[in-house]
Design goal:
This protein is an alpha/beta fold. It has a seven-stranded mixed sheet with strand order 4-1-2-3-5-6-7. A six-stranded mixed sheet has the order 8-9-10-11-12-13. A hairpin with a 7-residue loop joins strand 11 and strand 12. It is globular and about 50 Å long. The relative contact order is 0.16.
Length: 295
């Protein structure tokens, strides 16, 4: 957590985790095997990875980056579809969410009322990134227009879009279109969405894992710049084009990774904090409280 910072609009940035997930090793680190092959044949799981939600307290509102995994996904037999799509979901990931790891409980433990969340910036629309949107009933739900289009495409369910759960957000979903920004410090990015118009939280296009995936740059006096990403990486300590995840467009993942690397060159100390990276909590702590690093 960052302490209150004088002169900046961001008061705190913290991370919480709505349970954990085990994935196939090839999911987190791409190899020569095409996704359908390893998805059907892999017998290994990774160690548990977090399902992170980032909580940013800004003077204009309480913002979440991603909304975690719904606990009903491990308690309700009908949460996932049946048939071939259901097989894909069962082969892709194993979730563990204990009592007390639901989003409302975790927010209250941080001193936040879920009803006070004003915005959810959704990296993409897979269920472990937007699963709890119904638990923040007053929040505006931001998603890229390209991602919304992908969710509505034929066959979207087998590609990770559970439309029934996405629609639990009702009419609060807002599709965003990226526009040119006159902000030299986001180079090599040239477009984005400045959430509050003060440069402190800039949403950036980072397609690859899905066609409409996005990330968010967070800047405020008193801590290092932070870029929050969804599934652009599962291992930020080894972030780079030689360590890409195994699901998504290889070309787009490379392009988005190269852009973030360019941004890091422009913003020394840039911390890359991902949704499923076990190192993310320590990375965020060091970025926001550099005098007390995690051992």
């Amino acid at each position: 957590m960052t302490p209150g910072v004088e002169g900046g609009p961001i008061r705190t940035i913290t991370v919480l985790s709505t349970g954990s997930v085990r994935i196939r090793p090839e999911h987190g680190h791409r190899n020569w095997k095409p996704a359908p092959l390893w998805l059907l044949t892999s017998r290994e799981w990774t160690d548990p990875c977090p399902i992170n939600v980032y909580v940013i307290e800004h003077e204009a509102g309480l913002v979440l980056f991603d909304a975690g995994q719904d606990r009903r996904s491990v308690t309700d037999d009908d949460y996932y579809p049946g048939g071939l799509a259901g097989l894909v979901y069962r082969r892709l990931a194993e979730f563990s969410i204990d009592e007390g790891e639901d989003l409302p409980t975790l927010l209250r433990a941080q001193g936040h009322d879920p009803a006070e969340v004003t915005h959810v910036v959704t990296s993409h629309l897979h269920q472990d990134h937007m699963g709890c949107v119904a638990d923040v009933p007053n929040a505006e739900l931001l998603v890229s227009a390209d991602e919304w289009k992908a969710m509505q495409a034929r066959g979207a369910e087998i590609n990770g879009y559970l439309r029934r759960h996405i629609e639990a957000g009702g009419d609060r979903w807002r599709q965003i279109e990226f526009e040119h920004l006159d902000d030299a410090d986001i180079a090599p990015f040239t477009s984005g969405v400045d959430l509050f118009g003060d440069g402190s939280m800039v949403i950036l296009p980072t397609p690859g894992h899905t066609t409409g995936s996005l990330s968010m740059l967070v800047r405020s006096p008193g801590f290092d710049p932070v870029i929050l990403v969804g599934d652009l990486t599962f291992d930020a300590p080894h972030f780079g084009c030689d360590h890409l995840p195994g699901i998504g467009s290889l070309g787009s993942l490379r392009e988005s990774t190269t852009l973030v690397e360019g941004l890091a060159a422009r913003l020394p100390g840039l911390a890359v904090c991902a949704t499923h990276d076990p190192a993310a909590a320590g990375i965020l702590h060091r970025a926001t409280d550099p005098d007390h690093p995690v051992e």
